[in-house]
Design brief:
Length: 169
């Protein structure tokens, strides 16, 4: 779509306006649609907007879901390890952990193996929340699967992982 015009559709697929009530009739995207990074970001934004709306009544963000899912499969993991996995600074992750602890979704206890660290686990209430959120995540996954043909899901996942690994060097 290089240099082509998109009638009344913004880069994210929504109507674009420059003033209230006045829509652009055309907008040029130039080379943007041909950039993988641009398309990945547009897709990520659309997926996050959708799942944020779907999770709003539960009060869990997409990032918190990811953290809860990690705790389900890695009970007792510490925040230092999670910060490395998510490539976040410890302070940023600490805010999310404190919020989840305060809400009774996860438990933070001093590690028996190394008293410098805190082990993180889901509480019984956290497991219930995670089940509810997972059902909505899986509904969204089915929506994405519906636009993919046979074998395309695995192909897409493989391609995205290869691109991600290219920047982990």
């Amino acid at each position: 779509m290089s240099g082509k015009r998109a009638a009344t559709r913004g880069a994210a697929g929504t109507n674009t306006k420059n003033e209230p009530g006045q829509e652009f009739t055309e907008i040029k995207f130039g080379r943007l649609p041909g950039y993988i990074g641009y398309q990945v970001r547009q897709t990520q934004s659309a997926v996050f907007r959708d799942i944020s709306r779907a999770l709003k009544d539960i009060g869990v963000t997409p990032g918190e879901f990811s953290l809860l899912a990690m705790l389900e499969t890695n009970p007792g993991v510490n925040s230092v390890t999670l910060a490395k996995i998510y490539q976040l600074d410890k302070a940023t992750l600490s805010l999310a952990i404190k919020s989840l602890v305060r809400r009774g979704i996860i438990r933070s206890t001093r590690s028996a193996d190394d008293r410098r660290y805190y082990s993180l686990t889901l509480t019984p209430a956290g497991r219930i929340v995670l089940r509810r959120v997972t059902r909505r995540i899986e509904r969204q996954e089915r929506t994405m699967d519906a636009v993919l043909g046979p074998g395309e899901r695995q192909c897409l996942l493989d391609l995205l992982q290869r691109i991600s690994r290219a920047f982990d060097r």
